[in-house]
């Protein structure tokens, strides 16, 4: 990505001290009877960089989908900057940008059209859309690809585009659902630099990832979710202390009941064998 | 333009952009198909049949073909567009936007409506110059075509949302829609049919749609125009209500 990163436009003033994301007693039960979320409560402060960690199928994406309108909660409430995100969602949706885990791009659209339509769905006037598109195409090194259809892009380029799309309408809460899954080291580091930058400029970030060292490095606070429940939250130091481990990774392994995989224990075994 | 207008216009623009990007398939092919019908049935059979109900055969069939073009294109566009976006999960971009269920439903409907209108309009213009297709009752024609277009757009939305594979869409189109249209009297007058087929035809809703459009163009109809318009309006509204409820509940769209 190009450097320096252009400054994000000033965020609209937040009249209240409402949390960026306020989830209360959220339940999601599928028609099959599977309970993906079991009375989840979570609060993320404005400007926070928040990590949501858990094994596959723990409920991370379901929680994100409930907050962004892609899943209908069974009960409970979700508020974004004080606005209801379930029934009267217009204001709440304006404040959220979602970069989903899947590269859900429309094959018929070009890169530029993908950004332009997305901004249109959020009501941005044409002039504003054009300026923002140009800015993000440059930021994510997509200028040369702007007229190409999305299906012709490489996986890394698609990932950049998904992130650029999420940022088009200047969201105050950016939700990144495993944004670095399957991307190379270089792109991963570029993405983190950019995300850190916009977080410093005031954008709240909710991140799910399987890369624990990244969560440890980037996030102010982290929540562990397992079997549809938030089982612990705090800073990485607090979580390590709670599980009586030396770091976040070991705390996570303790959570999922796989402490025997701890690097320290593996090294002990290797030393004993040699 | 207000934010809501920009949003709605963008949703519709996306649908139009989709079919215009593959216009050989979405506009060119249906036009060719319609003109093949006119050539084969009109020119070849027309030379033998000459007239039906006192109207030149080629003129008799063209209103039904125009209606059929609008109906099938409106239906297949919307069903395919929605299903394709569901497959890619690209539809999540629209579903997670501030757009209301009504805006989403109408925007998806309009895509097919406009494609059908484009094909039907070109067919009419060419027919006007080639065979002198008249317009006798402009208001009835406008109302009938609008309702037919909107009805099949809604039907396409319904099938697209409910479908889980492309086979579901093609089944509806090939095994339900096309037989109903062909047996609704596009190429013949129902009065020529022996019993029980004549009575059976009266249970086919497409028969009344063709009758309305034929009346608008030629001033000739076998159906009660006022009653047909009323029933078609009610059926279209009912379908729109069902679709709106589907978008509100997120049926097969949201998890």
How would you describe what is shown here?
The complex is a heterodimer of chains A (274) and B (255). Chain A is an alpha/beta fold and 274 residues long. Chain A has 10 helices and 10 strands. A 6-stranded mixed sheet of chain A has the order 6-7-8-3-9-10, sandwiched between helices. Chain A has a 4-stranded antiparallel sheet with strand order 2-1-4-5. In chain A, a hairpin with a 2-residue loop joins β4 (75-80) and β5. Residues 3-13 of chain A have low confidence and may be disordered. Chain B is 78% helix and 2% strand. The radius of gyration of chain B is 19 Å and the shape is globular. The two termini of chain B are 33 Å apart. Chain B has one domain (3-249). The mean pLDDT of chain B is 93. Classes of the chains: A alpha/beta (274), B mainly alpha (255). At the A-B interface, α1, α2 and α3 of A face α1, α3 and α4 of B.
Number of helices of chain B: 10
Q: Would you tell me the overall average pLDDT of chain B? A: 93
How many domains comprise the coordinates of chain A? Answer: 2
Oligomeric status of the shown chains? Answer: heterodimer
Question: What is the helix tally of chain A?
Answer: 10
Structural class of chain A: alpha/beta
Indicate the proportion of strand residues of chain B.
under 5%
Instruction: Quote the beta fraction of chain A.
Output: 15-25%
Query: Approximately how much helix is present in the residues of chain B?
Result: over 70%
Largest interface: A-B, 34 and 33 residues
Rg from Cα of chain A: 19 Å
Largest sheet of chain B, if any? 2 strands, antiparallel
């Amino acid at each position: 990505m190009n450097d320096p990163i252009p400054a994000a436009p000033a965020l609209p003033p937040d009249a209240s001290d409402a949390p960026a994301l306020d989830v209360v007693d959220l339940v999601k039960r599928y028609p099959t009877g599977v309970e993906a979320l079991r009375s989840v409560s979570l609060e993320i402060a404005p400007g926070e960089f928040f990590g949501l960690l858990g094994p596959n199928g723990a409920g991370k994406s379901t929680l994100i989908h409930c907050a962004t309108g892609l899943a209908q909660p069974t009960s409970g409430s979700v508020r974004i900057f004080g606005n209801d995100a379930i029934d009267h969602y217009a204001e709440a949706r304006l404040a959220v940008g979602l970069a989903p885990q899947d590269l859900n791009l429309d094959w018929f659209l070009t890169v530029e059209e993908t950004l332009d339509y997305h901004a249109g769905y959020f009501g941005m006037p044409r002039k504003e859309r054009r300026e923002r598109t140009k800015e993000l195409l440059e930021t994510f090194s997509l200028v040369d690809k702007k007229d190409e259809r999305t299906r012709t892009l490489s996986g890394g380029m698609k990932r950049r585009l998904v992130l650029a799309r999420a940022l088009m309408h200047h969201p105050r809460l950016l939700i990144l659902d495993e944004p670095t899954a399957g991307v190379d080291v270089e792109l991963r580091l570029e993405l983190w630099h950019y995300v850190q930058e916009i977080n410093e400029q005031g954008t709240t970030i909710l991140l799910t990832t399987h890369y624990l060292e990244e969560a440890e490095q980037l996030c102010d606070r982290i929540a562990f979710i397992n079997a549809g429940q938030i089982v612990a939250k705090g800073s990485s130091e607090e979580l390590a202390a709670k599980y009586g481990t030396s770091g976040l990774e070991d705390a996570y392994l303790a959570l999922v009941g796989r402490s025997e995989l701890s690097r320290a224990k593996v090294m002990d075994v290797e030393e004993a064998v040699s | 333009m207000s934010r809501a207008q920009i949003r709605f216009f963008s949703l519709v623009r996306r649908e139009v952009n989709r079919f215009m990007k593959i216009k050989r398939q979405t506009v060119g092919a249906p036009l060719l198909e319609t003109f093949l019908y006119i050539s084969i049935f009109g020119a070849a059979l027309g030379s033998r049949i000459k007239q039906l109900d006192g109207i030149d055969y080629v003129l008799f069939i063209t209103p039904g073909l125009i209606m059929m073009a609008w109906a099938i294109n409106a239906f297949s566009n919307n069903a395919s567009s929605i299903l394709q976006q569901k497959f890619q999960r690209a539809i999540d971009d629209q579903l997670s936007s501030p757009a209301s269920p009504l805006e989403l439903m109408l925007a998806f409907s309009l895509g097919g409506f406009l494609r059908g209108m484009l094909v039907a309009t070109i067919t009419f213009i060419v027919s006007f110059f080639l065979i002198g297709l008249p317009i006798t009752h402009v208001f009835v024609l406008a109302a009938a075509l609008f309702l037919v277009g909107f009805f099949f757009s809604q039907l396409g939305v319904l099938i697209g949302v409910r479908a889980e594979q492309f086979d579901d869409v093609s089944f509806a189109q090939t095994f339900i829609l096309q037989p109903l249209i062909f047996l609704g009297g596009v190429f013949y007058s129902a009065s020529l049919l022996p019993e029980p087929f004549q009575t059976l035809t009266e249970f086919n809703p497409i028969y009344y749609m063709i009758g309305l459009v034929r009346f608008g163009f030629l001033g000739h109809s076998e159906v009660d125009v006022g009653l047909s318009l009323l029933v078609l309006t009610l059926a279209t509204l009912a379908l729109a209500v069902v679709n709106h409820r589907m978008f509100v509940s997120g049926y097969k769209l949201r998890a």
